[in-house]
Recover the amino acids of this structure.
């Protein structure tokens, strides 16, 4: 773990200014964006991620928990790049790009979606997602079942019908319909929508890319699926 921490610290080359994220119940967080970048013959790294600071002591434990989990996630990505074998002949370097979307929902909850692109040799890289949904006051991560009513078969079917309803499939490229179970993790909140993100190859061939399905909060409420 100490080695991973040193790795992360050594790569940080720029830090953006603080910005304030607030919501209606006076939960107020400072978001400190960090950026890691590195470019040499072996690797190209461009990684952005948020770190939270609390304005109120009641949210300190939640901020510490989110920060810890995000730091472990970022450190693991960097360690994987360091541990990979020497690049194969025929391409310039391995590549890691990480960006994120961040929002607050239902007054107490922070939602961060990371978009990760990794190229480690072969014909092309892969894009996938990692989401963190947190109750800041209670300092706990949220599963799909914490946010939505998905315990029964009927509830899961109702959610999957909404996914199909809002699924955009240009030129019918994707050859599978989106389906989730209660164990699905790649969901996040963004501006009055819940976003369900599907990585490369999840719903069809690589050429189709990723899929992000935005279901309006009002429609989830109308179907009795939203808990919060």
């Amino acid at each position: 773990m100490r080695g991973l921490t040193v790795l992360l610290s050594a790569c940080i080359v720029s830090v953006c200014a603080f910005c304030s994220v607030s919501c209606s119940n006076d939960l107020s967080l400072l978001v400190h964006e960090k950026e890691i970048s590195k470019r040499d013959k072996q690797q190209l790294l461009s990684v952005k991620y948020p770190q939270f600071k609390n304005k109120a002591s009641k949210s300190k434990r939640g901020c510490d928990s989110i920060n810890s989990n995000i730091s472990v996630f970022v450190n693991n990505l960097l360690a994987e790049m360091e541990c990979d074998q020497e690049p194969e002949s025929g391409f310039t370097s391995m590549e890691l790009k990480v960006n994120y979307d961040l929002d607050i929902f239902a007054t107490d909850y922070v939602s961060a979606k990371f978009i990760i692109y990794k190229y480690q040799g072969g014909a092309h890289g892969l894009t996938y997602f990692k989401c963190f949904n947190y109750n800041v006051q209670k300092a706990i991560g949220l599963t799909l079942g914490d946010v939505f009513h998905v315990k029964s078969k009927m509830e899961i079917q109702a959610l999957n019908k909404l996914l199909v309803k809002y699924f955009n499939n240009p030129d019918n490229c994707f050859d599978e319909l989106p389906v989730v179970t209660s164990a699905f993790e790649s969901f996040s909140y963004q501006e009055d929508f819940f976003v369900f993100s599907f990585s490369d190859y999840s719903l069809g061939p690589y050429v189709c890319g990723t899929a992000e399905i935005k279901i309006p909060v009002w429609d989830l409420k109308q179907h009795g699926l939203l808990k919060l």
Observations:
- The radius of gyration is 19 Å.
- Helices lie at 2-11, 60-83, 144-147, 153-165, 217-222.
